[in-house]
Amino acid sequence: MHLNRRQFTGAISAGASAAVLKSKLRAADKPSAAFTLGLGTYTFRNQDVAGLIERCRDLNLRTIELSHPQFMLPQADLSTFSTVRQQLVTGDVDLRSWFCGDLAKPSEVDRMREGVHLFGVKMVSGSATHELLDAVNAACTKDGFQFGIHNHYFANRKFLYESPDDVLKALDGRPALFSTFDTGHMIACGFDPTNAYEKLKAHVRIIHLKDEDAPGHGVILGKGKGDMARFLRTISQDRFSGLAAIEYEEGTDPTKEVAQYIAFIRDQVSLETLKV
Asked: How many CB atoms within 10 Å of residue 84?
């Protein structure tokens, strides 16, 4: 069938209108995110603080959980914390949480308290032995901060907090503790992250966004076994309002991969109301 110029122009206009309408309907179908999209800085652990700030600026991710290994206990040098805090403030980076590592000794609880004061944070993520949980809860209550139990997978050993039930037991009766929910480690330990989140969601304040195709091997969101599209829509529909921190642990400078994370997240949920 041959179209004259008027018919051809009309067909093009109709097609463009249909495409715009389809795009609007697709956008309307996305749940609106209430969380703060940020960065777990272990992603850029090979960068110093200046390099980290540069990458936060490039990616427009201004809220972080500081999880560079050199700032974790027991090896952390607390004398550097005030300087690091000032660097981040000057660089317009919001230090929302500090990943303090795994607490194994009472003296480390005291050092955690000092680190919290020096960084000026109200949230800390990490883990503690069962024997230290009450001391951690007491320290949080006294000093006015909260501690997130971070679930983790290790290839060669059983960790204290792998399953949702492991975390729930740690939180029971300790109101200053919460869940720092790591999707990648849930996947690695054999748990569907959405189902695990449903069990823990009353206690989740921080989420580490990851996907894995094999235990301990990270991939771009949506390319692993976590059904991360479902997860993102679930937390958005639930109006999760805490920090959702992107973590990608492969490579030495995964700026492009983090950009792909952001694109995938934008494709699943509406971030229009967020400062991202």
From this structure: 19
Which sign, positive or negative, has the C-alpha torsion 179, 89, 264, 152? negative
pLDDT higher than threshold 90 for residue 81:
yes
pLDDT at 24: 46
Q: From residue 15, give the alpha-carbon distance in Å to each of 21, 25, 92, 215, 265.
A: 10, 15, 44, 45, 28
pLDDT of residue 69: 98
Q: Is 66 exposed, middle or buried (0-12, 13-18, 19+ CB in 10 A)?
A: buried
pTM: 0.89
Kindly report, residue by residue over 121-148, the tens digit of the pLDDT: 999 999 999 999 999 999 999 999 999 9
- 74: cis peptide before it, omega within 30°? yes
Tell me the one-letter amino acid at 11.
Answer: A
Residue 55: closest CA among 219, 217, 248: 248
Q: What angle do CA 69, 71, 77 make, to 5 degrees?
A: 125
- Residue 201 gets which letter from DSSP? G
Report whether pLDDT(17) > 60.
no
Strand partners for 270 = 32
Beta strand 123-128 pairing with 211-214 = unpaired
- With beta carbons less than 8 A apart as the criterion, state whether 207 and 244 touch: yes
